Amino acid sequence: MAKYLTQRIIYMVVTLFLIASFTFFLMKIIPGTPFSNADKLSDTQLSIMIDKYGLDDPVPVQYANYMMNLLKGDLGVSFQFNNVGVTDIIIKSLGPSATLGGLAILFGTFFGVILGVVAALKQNTWVDYTSTFIAVLGKSIPSFVFAGLLQYYIGVKLGWFPVAFWRGPEYMVLPTIALAMFPLATASRFVRTEMIEVMESDYITLAKAKGASWFEIAFKHALRNALIPVITVLGPLVVSLMTGSLVIEKIFGIPGIGEQFVKSIQVNDYPVIMGTTLLFAGLFVLVILIVDLLYGVIDPRIRLAGGKK
Amino acid sequence: MKKSKFFLLLSLMLVLSTFLAACGGGGDNAGKDDNKKGADETAAQEIKMLEAQAIPNMDSVKSTDTISFTTLNNVNEGLYRLDGNQEVVEGMAEGEPEISEDGTVYTFKLRDAKWSNGEPVTAHDFVYAWQRAIDPETASEYGPYMMDGKIKGAAEITAAAAEKKEYDLNTLGVKAIDDKTLEVTLERPVPFFKSLMTFPTFYPQNQKFVEEQGENYGVNSDSILYNGPFVLADWDGSTDSEWSYVKNADYWDADTVKLEKVTWNVLKESQSAANAFETGEVDITSKLSSDVVPQYEGDPRLVKWLEPTIFWLKMNQKESDALKNVNIRKAIAQAINKEDFVNSVLNNGSIVANYAVPNEFVKNDETGEDFRAINGNELLPYNLDEAKKAWEAGLAELGTDSVELRYLTDDTETAKKSAEYVKNQLETNLPGMKINVESVPFSVRIDRQNKQDYDLQMHGWGPDYLDPMTFSDLWLTGGGNNKMDYSNKKYDQLIEEAQTTLAQKPVERYEALAEAERILLEEDAAIAPLYQRSSNLLVNEKVENFTYHLVGPEYSFKWTSVK
């Protein structure tokens, strides 16, 4: 296990290094400067700025400088904000995004799994059809539509929850529901399909014959196996929700990382582009590792490297 | 199982709301009543504002954006400031400046005013800030942009730095005669110099404090000194989405300031802003996008004004033979139905622009008349017959029957919709015209503009000071912002006169600038003006004297109060 982990971690570092290098050169291909006022500056004025920030150095030199600093853990300073370190930006804006994404995943999968299980057990009844209907809605309607509806009807009309901002638990309710619809639908569909299959397998028949209770069969025996595909889709979903809830963050005025990522690309804020890309990539490879480890926990039949020996 | 029932209920609610949304509208009155109730309860002098973005930079010599400028304008103060009528009123300077006969030396007397750490605001603070702004080491974008060609010595420092030669900051034309007297020497008379002094780049900075803070200067509300009507509070730096202004008791004119507190929140989405406004969560929204504005048409809470920002098509004459031809340019400029464009595509109160200097922007100091009164609003208007005639003449001169042009524009929704419309108009109205739209991110568009790598470009320009010159000098031969190889000696001559011999004759100067504008459009059709943008936002009826500006900072709260 330890050997397997070390190996995986080495691969992770190599992957990240490749991603960082690739992104750096791609980013430098984009024309333009990171100066917001470039439209108004004369060529002389612009040349001073470019020189001052070393943007006229050859790209390989800039790359070497960046990598050296990266090794020291220095992600650089943003262009669009005055003297704000990229590490600072990431730390401050990752919190709200991670909280929101985490809540959405938690609520989405929890209710999604329950919905899927119930639908599978009551196959072809009105419960099943309703669950399918909700899942189709959740998958096909984009989250920003839910967000708009929730904001208007629950926030403005009913006044149950605040319409925007990020100041405490009550502010999290609407964005969480809006964002949870997709993982909910995804989880419920996967669980339903798997559950139906699992419920027909021999060991369930055995469990029934043994006289195990309905609850025990469903949640102790069947669900465990039905969860494997859910874990697989959940991995990437976790990353995209933690980082990619850009639209929801925009609608509810949540100071998250999604906006920093998109805006940094628009304004050529090189250090922020690199920082956020590395963060997303890092999270992604980490989640893939965790998912692989979880397989073994959930289903002992799946053994990680060296299991057969 | 209880939970799943609750969930079913919730889901049903969601489903239901989908259908309700379809039947939408109708319910606006409920929100309005709520708002009024809120106003009765809170007579406190406190208002809640929305902004579309966080504050990028609170170092006044380095700021480049309206949000930073607005904040600086409320928590700091320069020699003068602008009031709600866009008039220049006293700030750190007491009374009018003394101006030398040739109009190039200004002497300002400073009033007794304090920084928020108790130290006095002196003439040295201005000298320090201005030198810091022009210093190439500071890498300020607005310092050189605002000073070069205006303040004596500025352009020389910039030029020396660009060639990596020695420069001396003390050659900049700003001197402290004593603690309370500031002398500024100009390159040449600048008739709008007083209004220039309201711009945050020219604000004072306390040398000792700035140097003590070093890299940390301006990174949060504790690392800035204040001398304005308010002080900034609870601002944790550029990533913070909430901040507030608190009344500054030590401000020299504190008696005028009624508001105790202005709180700010970042909310990008216009519809969300309107929703937050309806619940009474905010009193004034950020500027609304055009999809929200029609919902509030006719509502007294919708405040609208004409921004002095014009959008035009730049026609690059560098490589395109077609665009070198004046008839082709005239055809393009007159073939676009602007009335239809502003009403059906933009639909946000923007107006048709048949001019190159905005409407409701500047008035003549002597006559009090709007600059637009001289030339009117009918330079190069939409005229299909004229366009077709010019088009045929142009094609004949070129000896061709078709023209293909690239159309460079941003990748925003509005830019794309506008491009579709313009393409359609030009291709329909000018047979043989082919337009290839290229939508690119903002920084890429600017880069291609600087390299003059475009044929037509949708380009907008907003002013940086209250004078037609901020628009007129764009089109000088070889000018820093021309970037389309337009050149006309008569035009250059008129601008030169306005900057030199006529500098102290307001009436003749305006006439020269107006004549230049007429040449630019009627004779040369150098650009094709399309529209002048308007601003729209929602203001709670309890707010009195909401003050907006046309250049630099957007709002002032010095005179605002709650009913």
Summarize the structure in words.
The complex is a heterodimer of chains A (309) and B (563). Chain A has 309 residues and is mainly α. Chain A has helices spanning 2-29, 43-52, 59-71, 86-121, 126-140, 143-157, 169-199, 202-210, 214-243, 246-252, 257-266, 270-298. The two termini of chain A are 13 Å apart. Chain B has a domain at 306-535: Roll (Dipeptide-binding Protein, domain 3), CATH 3.10.105. Chain B contains 19 helices and 20 strands. Chain B has helices at 2-23, 28-41, 66-75, 123-134, 142-147, 154-162, 193-196, 207-213, 270-278, 321-324, 326-334, 338-346, 372-375, 384-398, 413-429, 442-450, 469-472, 489-499, 506-523; strands at 46-51, 80-82, 88-90, 98-99, 105-109, 174-178, 181-185, 230-233, 242-247, 261-266, 302-315, 351-352, 403-410, 433-440, 456-461, 527-538, 543-544, 547-548, 555-556, 561-562. In chain B, helix 11 packs antiparallel against helix 14 (384-398) and helix 18 (489-499) packs antiparallel against helix 19 (506-523). The chains are: A mainly alpha (309), B alpha+beta (563). Chain A: Residues 94-295 form the ABC transmembrane type-1 domain. Chain A: One of its GO terms (cellular component) is plasma membrane.
Oligomeric state, counting identical vs distinct chains: heterodimer
Give the overall form of chain A: flat
Order of strands side by side in the largest beta sheet of chain B? 12-16-11-15-13-14
The parts of chain B where pLDDT drops under 50 for at least 5 residues are 1-42
Give the number of helices of chain A: 12
> What is the general shape of chain B?
globular
Strand pairing plus helix content of chain A: what structural class?
mainly alpha
CATH class of one domain in chain B equals: Alpha Beta
Low-confidence stretches of chain A: none
Number of DSSP strand runs of chain B: 20
What is the rounded distance between the termini of chain A? 13 Å
> How many individual β-strands of chain A?
0
- The helix/strand class of chain B is alpha+beta
Helix content of chain A: over 70%
Number of helices of chain B: 19
CATH topology of one domain in chain B, which one? Dipeptide-binding Protein, domain 3
Largest sheet geometry of chain A: none
Mean pLDDT of chain A: 87
Largest sheet of chain B: 6 strands, mixed
CATH-defined superfamily of one domain in chain B: Dipeptide-binding Protein, Domain 3
Pfam families (chain B): SBP_bac_5 (PF00496)
Keywords (chain B): Lipoprotein, Palmitate, Peptide transport, Protein transport, Signal, Transport
Family (chain B): Belongs to the bacterial solute-binding protein 5 family.
Protein name (chain B): Peptide ABC transporter substrate-binding protein
